[in-house]
Design brief:
Elements: E1 47-49, E2 54-57, H1 69-74, E3 79-82, E4 87-90, E5 99-100, E6 103-104, H2 109-117, E7 126-129
Antiparallel strand pairs: 1-2, 2-7, 3-4, 5-6
Length: 136
């Protein structure tokens, strides 16, 4: 058992004509052990599905290493980035409102794409895709 010293009884024999035997009681002494350092680590899932939005956790993810924000957005579920016609489609809807740090950006689609191309992915913590925005 954990927390007790290992103990062994004294040897005993049982004869074939003997129906019962008396075994001496064993006493186990408690022992203490000091554990080393314990580290608890957790990682956020890459995609979190919440009731009214989808959250993509970009920080500390391999997708963010060496890429830009547009490449991360292209991998997001429900997002289609069309570089030829310079548009971003979210679950079939065009003309989306792009917000950065909870503030709307009043940029054209081409300017938004250029902004995302020039933003390194490791500077982004999360991307929230809100398909049915609340009153907030």
């Amino acid at each position: 058992m954990v927390g007790y010293e290992r103990s062994v009884s004294k040897p005993f024999t049982i004869a074939s004509d003997q129906l019962t035997t008396q075994v001496l009681p064993m006493v186990s002494r408690e022992t203490s052990q000091t554990l080393g350092e314990v580290k608890v680590t957790a990682a956020k899932p890459f995609v979190e599905q919440l009731p009214y939005k989808t959250v993509i956790n970009v920080e500390n993810n391999i997708v963010a290493s060496g890429g830009n924000a547009l490449e991360v957005l292209e991998r997001a579920p429900g997002v289609l980035v069309d570089n030829q016609s310079e548009r971003i489609v979210l679950k079939g809807r065009e003309g989306i409102l792009m917000m950065i740090d909870d503030k709307p950006t009043y940029l054209s689609a081409q300017e938004v794409l250029n902004l995302l191309r020039n933003t390194p992915a490791n500077s982004i913590e999360t991307i929230e895709l809100i398909t049915n925005p609340s009153a907030r």
